[in-house]
Design brief:
Helix content is 40%, strand content 15%. The chain is of the alpha+beta class. Belongs to the ubiquitin-conjugating enzyme family.
């Protein structure tokens, strides 16, 4: 019995000592992240921003399904894309993983749906939220960073908007529209 009470270090005695070192997540951390995500969902639902939406996937607050419509007046106008957002236990201090689930022909999106957008990587801030992410992605569709492409062919073609739109619509029809029907 004495051997059990000799350990007075609360960190090493804790069954969640991994949480303190950042290798796991405590239920307290998950609760605060869940609360933040619930607030973000309400903000998104009440914002009324056209062309963006997102909801938790079933009852999992840490995985969301989102849609982003191309902005009016861009080559993406009228196109709709499905994305996933996976939130880490360290959210909002760590960026979520955001991927296009719908194939997206774009200079800053690769064939696996990975996105090159600084606010999802090195420029991430805990001040950003789901609404900010989706509005940024909607803006990125019409205003790509062709100096940092994941899809070099799309970046090269971007300069010719007429040719780009033709290829974009062909690919969208083949890869997105036909898969939905």
């Amino acid at each position: 019995m004495a051997s059990h009470s000799q350990n007075t270090n609360p960190v090493s005695a804790s069954p969640r000592s991994k949480d303190v070192k950042g290798h796991g997540s405590s239920s307290k951390d998950n609760h605060s992240v869940s609360k933040r995500l619930q607030q973000e969902l309400m903000t998104l639902l009440t914002s009324g921003d056209p062309g963006i939406s997102a909801f938790p996937d079933n009852d999992n607050l840490f995985k969301w399904i989102a849609t982003v419509n191309g902005a009016k007046g861009t080559v993406y106008d009228g196109l709709r894309y499905k994305l996933t957002l996976d939130f880490p236990s360290g959210y909002p201090y760590q960026a979520p993983t955001v991927r296009f689930e719908s194939p997206c022909y774009h200079p800053n999106v690769d064939k696996h749906g990975n996105i090159c957008l600084d606010i999802l990587k090195e420029k991430w801030s805990a001040l950003y939220d789901v609404r900010t992410i989706l509005l940024s992605l909607q803006s990125l569709l019409g205003e790509p960073n062709i100096d940092s492409p994941l899809n070099v062919q799309a970046a090269d073609l971007w300069k010719n908007q007429e040719g780009y739109k033709k290829v974009l619509l062909e690919k969208y029809d083949q890869e997105v529209t036909k898969k939905q029907s």
